[in-house]
Structures are given as C-alpha cells and as structure tokens.
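Researcher: Quick test of sequence recovery. Tokens follow.
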C-alpha cells in the first residue's frame, strides 16, 4: 500500500494472472465497504490495484491487511443479458489472427459469462474478462476517429461495449443492444455495469 495523494492510497496486487489480481482488488473493495470507514469517498478497482480516496476524517489504518485478501468470486453476481450481432468491421481480421472461424467466435460469446473487471477510458466503459487466449488480439495500429455507441470490441484480454460515440482503437466485432444508456449521470447508480457483474451475450 502506498500513498498517492493527500487523502488517497493505492493497494497493488501483483498476481501473475491479471484476472486473479483484479478479483482480489474487487474483494478488497468489498471488504473495505463492509468495514464502513468514516470519511471514505470512493474505492475504485482497476486491473491490478484498488484506489482509495478519503475525506480528511478517513483513517488509513482501516486499509491494513486489504492488500493480502484472497480471490473469492461473488456467489450471486448481477447478470446483464445483451443482444448482439456479429457485424463488426474488424471481424475478419480478428478471425484471421485468432485462427477461429465465425461459428467458434459466436460460440465463445454465447456460452461465456463475461465478468466486469473494472470501468475506465470513458463513463460506462466496462472492461470484460472471459475471452479465451486465442482472441487476445492487439489493438488496431490506427485508432478510428469515431466508434459508434454499442460497438462490441476486443483488445488484449478484454471485450467491451462502447457506451457512446468516441474515438477508439479496439477491434470491432459486432453490435450490442444493451439497455441504454450504459451511463447516465442522473441515475442513482450512473453506470449500468459494476465491477463483479456478469455479462451474457445472446443472439439479436
């Protein structure tokens, strides 16, 4: 654990497997919330870390031991069902790089329950774990200036749904039709997805 600001601390998880590191970061967050510390502003998990921000009243002693939590998946996560069409501009390139055919790719997406590891890049953008290694393709060499909202994309170990029209460098493999919007600032919970949720894709 190290201090990264006047009232901010970063807990790092060095597991070789990033999914395990992320799971431990999410478990540490859950344990911290159980402790109900006074002055906690937010606790934000990332791929291999947990950022904790506190008000002046926050006592960092409450963080002791959290960087040693074990991985323990949620037993009853929230599951989001997303309809999808595999019509992305980069699907041929992804299939070529992975060695999979279209049927195999669709089978992966329809049979896998993807896990929301963390959110970042822009509001509502969730990094989903669950891709087999064959689909761990690199980002595009040249990012697009505009990726449409709802685009289903892959890059590295992640899949994601673009929540809004934005520049982006991921490989577009389809179009998802989730409940919109994925982010709405006026909602009690602005992001539709939360770390630890599961996403299930079904044919559109």
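Model:
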């Amino acid at each position: 654990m190290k201090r990264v600001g006047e009232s901010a601390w970063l807990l790092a998880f060095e597991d070789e497997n990033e999914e395990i590191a992320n799971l431990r970061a999410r478990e540490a967050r859950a344990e911290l919330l159980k402790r109900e510390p006074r002055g906690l502003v937010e606790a934000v998990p990332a791929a291999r870390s947990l950022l904790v921000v506190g008000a002046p009243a926050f006592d960092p002693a409450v963080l002791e031991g959290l960087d040693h939590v074990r991985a323990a998946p949620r037993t009853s996560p929230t599951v989001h069902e997303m309809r999808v069409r595999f019509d992305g501009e980069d699907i041929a390139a992804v299939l070529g790089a992975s060695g999979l055919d279209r049927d195999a790719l669709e089978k992966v997406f329809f049979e896998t329950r993807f896990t929301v590891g963390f959110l970042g890049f822009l509001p509502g953008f969730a990094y989903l774990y669950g891709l087999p290694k064959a689909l761990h393709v690199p980002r595009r060499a040249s990012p697009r200036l505009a990726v449409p909202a709802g685009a289903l994309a892959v890059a590295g170990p992640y899949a994601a749904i673009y929540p809004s029209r934005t520049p982006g460098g991921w490989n577009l493999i389809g179009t998802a039709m989730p409940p919109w919007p994925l982010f709405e600032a006026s909602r009690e919970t602005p992001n539709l997805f939360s770390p630890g949720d599961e996403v299930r894709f079904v044919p559109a």
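The chain has a mean pLDDT of 95.
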